[in-house]
Amino acid sequence: MHVKTLPASIPPSDLFSTTAASLKRSPALYAGLGSEEKARRAVKFALTTHATTFSDVYAVHRIVGIGANGVVLAAHDLTDSNRPVAIKIIYKSRVSATSLPHPELEAYKHLAGCDYSKHLLQLLDDWQDSHHIYLVTELYGFNWAARGSLRQQLQPLTISFTRQNDTVHTRTLDFYAGSSDLWAYRDHLTSTCGESTVPLFQIKEIIKQTALGLQYAHNHGYYHGDVKAENILLAQSNSPGVKIADLGNCKHISTGLYQYGTVEATPPELLFDSPFSASELDGRDADVFALGLVLYTLLQEKGELPEIMARIQDHSVGYKTLMLSNGGLFPLGDMSKFDRDAVHLLRGMTEVEPAMRMSVAQVLAHRFLL
After folding, report:
1. Cβ neighbours for 88, distance < 8 A, ≥ 6 positions apart
2. Does 88 show up as a binding residue in the annotation?
3. Which end of the chain lies in a sparser environment, N or C, as judged by fewer CB atoms within 10 Å?
């Protein structure tokens, strides 16, 4: 793994002061903010606090994704032949200047030590300050949002900051909520190509390559913990190259499974009346279930989740009901228009009882993906 020595940063501006007094007051930097405003403030904080780094090492071009836990920037590494990189700014749950371990960083470092999978993003650099952890990875995926309806979604962000030589720099960054992920690609197909569904040959490649990335993590004792369209990056459409992003919920299987990263993808074994204790659950089973939901949305004309998921989220349906209602098969609804082999695979990936669910190796061996 390549690790840089970053140049010293200039002191932060008064707006983002990190004095001992302000640290005691707490995560006030983001108090009461929504995800978009939180992301805007984080980017301003980063480019102001680390002005030298973001002018001499990493040239930021645009904001490419936001989420509950952080914001992702597209940049070039000026010290490495202008290599394209992604910089994820992760919000710390507590304001701290100390080097606290972070699950995403730990997961990247553990998995990077074992012949890094070509379907997981490669970690290139990391550092932190009192409010954030910064992860630099390869930049992967085509900017689908620039062609679809998402291109007008958010207003650009303009930032002015001063370097050590007192030169004032101003940058305007395009701001996308997600630009290279599967969700943005689906929007691109709908808004620019007039297509309502992803072609079947592309679906097969997307699921296969995502499963290969998961298999790598699973074989090394980790589960991803948040498999969804927004965390699957696509490089091209005709023969899509796929990488899995966001290891913020990635954990070692020995920790058990207490929650899944996205509520909408919660597996049956985590429901309110589940007979399983969280410590005995294997998160790899949940990853397969979540990937099954991704497959379902790709096959579904409008890209929607099964109707049962709404009832699961409002707690009107639990594990016991799911087990008794359909012989242990998850109620996916009408799939009469789906490919027959895809339906067979879907049923195996979404079995209600986790022990009966397919492993990722079985998914990869299924005839639908061969």
Report:
1. 70, 71, 72, 73, 104, 134, 135, 136, 137
2. yes
3. C
Alpha carbon dihedral 245, 236, 152, 301, in 10-degree steps, equals: -90
Residue-wise burial string across 345-364, b where 16 or more C-beta atoms lie within 10 A, e elsewhere: bbbbbbbbebeebbbbeebb
Residues of the chain with pLDDT under 70: 1-28, 96-100, 113-115, 147-153, 161-165, 237-238
Q: Which residues contact 252 (CB under 8 A, 6 or more apart)?
A: 110, 221, 222
pLDDT score recorded for residue 361:
98
Top-tier CATH class for 182-369: mainly alpha
Is the pTM higher than 0.90? The answer reads: no
Backbone phi, then psi, for 85, in 5-degree steps? -140, 160
Choose among 331, 336, 359, 361: nearest CA to 347.
Answer: 331
Measured CA to CA, the distance from residue 204 to residue 257 in angstroms comes to 28
